[in-house]
Amino acid sequence: MAQSAQALARETVPPAAPAAAGLGRFTGLIGAALLVLFLAAFPLVVTSQYYVHLLMVIAIYAILILGLDIVVGYTGQVSLGHAGLFGVGAYSAAVLFLHFKLGLWWGILAGIGVTAGFGLLLAIPALRVSGPYLAMVTLAFGTIIQIFINEMTPLTNGPLGITLPPARVIDFSLLGMQAPWGAAGRKLEFYYLVCLCLLLTIVVVNRIVRSPFGRAFEALRDSPIACDCMGVSVYRYKVYAFVVSAALAGLAGALFAWSERYVAPNSYGFELTVLFLLAVTMGGRKSRAGPLIGAAIIVMMPNILADIALVRIMAGIIAAVALVILAAAFLRRQENRTAILIPALLCIAFFPATLAMQSVTDFRLTVFGLMILFVVYYLPEGIVGYIREKLPFLRPAHTGEGTALSSSGEALIQQGGRAGADPLLKVEGAVMQFGGLKALAGVNLDVRPGTIHGLIGPNGSGKSTMMNVLTGIYKPTDGGVTLAAGAGSGKRLDGLTPSDIALSGVARTFQNVQLFREMTALENVLVGLHHAFHGTIFDAILGTPRRRREEREARARAMAILDFVGLGSLAQVEARNLPYGKQRLLEIGRALALDPVLLLLDEPAAGLTAPDIAELITIIRKIRDAGITVILIEHHMDVVMGLCDRVSVLDFGHKIAEGSAREVQADPKVIEAYLGSPVADAAE
Amino acid sequence: MTIFLQLVASGVAVGMIYAAIAFGYQLTFATSKTLNFGQGEALALGALFGLTLVPFTGYWLMLPLVLIFGFALGAVVERLGVRPAVKIKSEYGWIMATIALGIIFRNVAENIWGRDDLKFPSPLPETALSFEGIRVLPMELLIVAGALLMMLAVELFNRKSIWGKAVVATSNDIDAAGLMGINTRKVITLSYSISAMTAAFAGVLVAPVTLTGATMGAVLALKAFAVAIIGGLESGLGVIVGGLILGIVETLTGFYISTGYKDVPGLILLLLVLAVRPVGLFGKAVIKKV
Amino acid sequence: MLDVTGLAAGYGQVEVLHGLTFAVPKGQVVTLIGSNGAGKTTTMRALSGMIKPKAGSIRLNGREIAGLDSHEVARTGLAHSPEGRRVFPTLTVEDNLTLGAFPRLTGSRPKGDVSADRERVYELFPRLKERRAQLAGTLSGGEQQMLAMGRALMLRPEILLLDEPSMGLAPKLVEEVFRTIRRLKEEAVTMLLVEQFAMAALGVADHAYVLENGRIRFQGPAAQLRNDPAVRAAYLGGSH
């Protein structure tokens, strides 16, 4: 613990940090400017049609891969269906021309629209599954698309494919005039259109991932359960991610159809999908530069492989480097020397193999396969991730627009006017059955407003089950949960989804910390403030004044909350890099962002050191004083006894005692539940 | 009616192939919660390796050699593709790594055996036997018998031998298996070996009735995953039922709609089952603990 | 027999145990008691290699076993009957017991007479013999606990670790479990017992260590601690 705190201090506290963050913001701008300059100047410097076309293909792939990154990098899902979506986009454009003679612009619109629809379709199974299941589902989806394109000959012209004429970007003849840049310039119209689309894609993706939508994507990747419990519906945002990603794939597909001027079913198969994944991983997830680099690699690689002399030189260099690394590992007796033995030998063996071969073009896929293995094991964060790790000033500044690090507004919304004898939360006869086991066997619980209510009991007594029933993660087998909402009326919570319950004003923390690990402390709290954003995805894409105002206000409020839990100075640190005690506090802060009337704390003191516990107790008291009712599950008896106004004791799914902390502590039934019965034992 | 029964009979053989591959998925998923996305390539390599051996060894002696080949191939996949990724707890890692190995195997096979499909000589007469008007190829009977025998042998191994019991124990509870002194890493390698062995064997079985080539396994393996899902990735012999259903539905689709669409029902089934009941028709719902 | 010095362990970046030192002498029963979250089960997991200790030494008969994988620890003769029993539900009772002897059957521990030992377990738990062909998953909680203990004994262990053998059991079964522990003690089986039910554990153990928040709070002969109010305070808070 102490060690990780030191590591943290090293990384964040030096005064260089803010300056570095500033540089990080500029690298984005500088990079964008360089990209614009490069794209604009390229065809003027390199006049070869071949290379202009190659760059165009890279740009088109980059559009798709930027979209794929939303699914892979931000929501953390594997998609093997993006080649299929790419094909849908290409065919949407080509079919429109084949049957209706509609040109490029219609094709782009149709490509985006139709493919977004397919993305919606793909999202349906994707809602229920993830990981290997999702990989197989998306693979099946891609395969089906390919089969249909092949078989639906009347629509798609089947295996023969569709040929398109040269694309007309602007039809000057309609205006009755000549193109102002002459015939030579007309060849570049389409190139510049593709570049424009790429730049627009970068802007759109940038804005989405920095909006509440992007935060929701990352939140559902890092902890779907916590995401739901922050009132952010995992289902809804998975659909958004797939649709946006598919729309970009469709755009890329339509552009690709008009750039190649030929579409055929077999161009959109499994291998292409794997190449896209390789590109996104190798370039680097969660960045704009990564997909560009990745796209360049996968497009250029076949060209490099075609040049056997170049391949031999590269293989030679790789073999030499591998030999040096291996020798060094064995001489220094490094622990990983056996682990790197096989890959190093493979790298070395690759060199004589290239010498023996006349051409490696046929082994193109083998090379791609080896690259995937290499990236998965040695470069998991991709090229951009690796560079960011080595050069800290290139790390993105997480602040987004403006360093709104000043806090304003109250951290806590006072939940006054509720104090009284009527319970805020009423649990009646809650039963939760798992197979033959009754984890809760008809528990009644009344929680009075403005109190700290303790829930204790030995292992397996049903406390955590109660927590999950209250927050909608489990649907109780029987019984009811009612939250007093406003004057006299009660709101039934049982049967609602976790995200609805969260939005009704019940927030929680988790026994095993469920933070959004790759997001900063500030962003974690902002996910909790998701309910304060009312802008649509178009607000996010267009960067409307409403969107900017909401973001500004939410950031200020989030900072106030972080100050409240004592994390103000750590706002820009990724949650996974916080010391454990701070992570616990951040979870509480995130829950407070929901403006709850009721806060459920699940073993907040577990694993904390004594000073951390003291801080925690102070914070919980302050929360209660703001009028927020607290339910506290805790093993740490000193915490329970010191804080709770009232304590309920569970054992074997029954409530066995209730009262003030002192009363419960002295209750013989409680003592027996905890320590066992000395009487039965003495009978021996 | 005869046509219908004829189609059903033809569907049974390919259904058993699906079952055998799906059975292989179950084995590794049970021990390690991972599976080989290159299972189709293991099948294709088994068939191609067998094809090369047949002129030297004859059909029957080739079989045990293919089994050994598949066994070794599985171990390679596990050591290179799965173990390192599991060590760094990367789900994306093993999915991508097994896909990559699959691509490499396929590409190497294409370079060794060529891109064109080859004919695998049938060990049995190629004239169909007729049962009450329903024609069945002797090879189809061999496929059914072979696949059943293979699965039965693995089940017997799991139930009777101490290492087989260790495999089951690891599938049940990997931590508790470790406490018994079982080297669970070895057991996972073993399960990959057996899994690839089943796939390679399925490859030589199916090769004489289809064409043999580096890409023969890809779609088979994907559809077999559908079967594994229908049967439940955790539950035993549901795969046979699932395999038969899919095999029969496919031949029916091929006959009544179009052979071009015969892969579609399996894939749609996969999408539907996962959209509606991700644990499979025979699987048990798992309650996630927070 | 078992000597633990300065043991620190935890999960991820959370340290649960902050340097435990204790010993289990040959032929004795030692118990670790303390409230939920005190670190009892974490200690057991660190001893048997289920989690890797961050610091400290664990010596079994003088041999350092800290840092070994759990299957390697088992081969040194440490049997761990884990919390929650963890029997293999789709294997029969008999197969569960056979797997307990896995290192003996695969040559990494002296083989001895495995089937005779199985008969001995059946004699200790007659109920298991009746159900020998039944799948372990169909047993009742109490029977599963007996199976878990029997399975651990099949190793012919140098030391037996019992983690929460009474958890979730009805009082009558708890008594039965403790009767068995007492009987094993008479047969001079060295045991380390972790128990939530402190009174029962103190009734059978020779020596006890009381854990609180990952540290040993105090220790003493079990008989002496039975009437010590500090034990109660360790569970339910209050003055020490």
UniProtKB/TrEMBL annotation, chain A:
Main localization category: membrane
Compartments (UniProt record): Cell membrane
GO MF term set: ATP binding
Keyword field: ATP-binding, Cell membrane, Membrane, Nucleotide-binding, Transmembrane, Transmembrane helix
ABC transporter domain: residues covered: 425-677
Parts of the chain that traverse the membrane: 26-45, 51-72, 79-98, 104-124, 131-149, 190-209, 239-258, 311-331, 338-357, 363-380
Cross-referenced InterPro entries: AAA+_ATPase (IPR003593), ABC_transp_permease (IPR001851), ABC_transporter-like_ATP-bd (IPR003439), BCA_ABC_TP_C (IPR032823), LivM-like (IPR043428), P-loop_NTPase (IPR027417)
Presence of keyword Transport: no
SUPFAM superfamilies linked to this entry: P-loop containing nucleoside triphosphate hydrolases
Highest taxon of the lineage: Bacteria
Annotated membrane topology: Multi-pass membrane protein
Protein name listed in UniProt: Vitamin B12 import ATP-binding protein BtuD
Organism the protein comes from: Methylobacterium isbiliense
Automatic annotation (TrEMBL), chain B:
Localization, UniProt: Cell membrane
Keywords (A to Z) from UniProt: Amino-acid transport, Cell membrane, Membrane, Transmembrane, Transmembrane helix, Transport
Membrane disposition: Multi-pass membrane protein
TM region positions: 43-73, 94-114, 134-157, 187-207, 237-258, 264-287
Family annotation (Pfam families): BPD_transp_2
Domain of life where this protein originates: Bacteria
Keyword Cytoplasm: no
InterPro entries cross-referenced by the UniProt entry: ABC_transp_permease, BCAA_transport_permease
UniProt-listed PANTHER family: AMINO ACID ABC TRANSPORTER PERMEASE PROTEIN (PTHR11795:SF445), BRANCHED-CHAIN AMINO ACID TRANSPORT SYSTEM PERMEASE PROTEIN LIVH (PTHR11795)
Family: Belongs to the binding-protein-dependent transport system permease family. LivHM subfamily.
Record protein name field: High-affinity branched-chain amino acid transport system permease protein LivH
Organism listed in the record: Methylobacterium isbiliense
Gene that encodes it: livH_4
TrEMBL record, chain C:
Record bears the keyword S-adenosyl-L-methionine: no
Residues of the ABC transporter domain: 2-238
One GO MF term: ATP binding
Transmembrane region(s): none
Keyword vocabulary terms for this entry: Amino-acid transport, ATP-binding, Nucleotide-binding, Transport
Alphabetized SUPFAM superfamilies for the sequence: P-loop containing nucleoside triphosphate hydrolases
Similarity-based family: Belongs to the ABC transporter superfamily.
Protein name: High-affinity branched-chain amino acid transport ATP-binding protein LivF
Chain's gene name: livF_4
